[in-house]
Write a structure and sequence with these properties.
Elements: H1 3-42, H2 51-87
Helix pairs in contact: 1-2
């Protein structure tokens, strides 16, 4: 395996990781922002209020996007396995 192949493989792994984690992270960020806005408007400064809705929203986003996430992971794994004979 050449150094360029290793760099390409690492870059693709990082891109796949970012794509896979983006639905859950964006959901958590948007719900946290919304709860923070509501807390600022109502002047309720309890720290634990934002955790429960954020966790529930993130679990729901993960459950809805799980087939899509698994499809991306399987495709990436298949590409990596198909490259093994080329790099030997």
């Amino acid at each position: 395996m050449s150094p360029q192949d290793a760099i390409d493989l690492g870059r693709e792994a990082i891109i796949v990781m970012l794509v896979i984690s983006s639905p859950v992270l964006l959901t958590g960020m948007s719900v946290g922002l919304l709860i923070g806005l509501i807390q600022a408007l109502t002047q309720i400064q309890e720290q634990t209020i934002s955790f429960v809705p954020r966790i529930i929203a993130m679990v729901m986003a993960l459950s809805f996007s799980l087939p899509w996430l698994l499809n991306h992971m399987v495709q990436y794994f298949q590409e990596v396995v198909q490259r093994i004979p080329e790099n030997l």
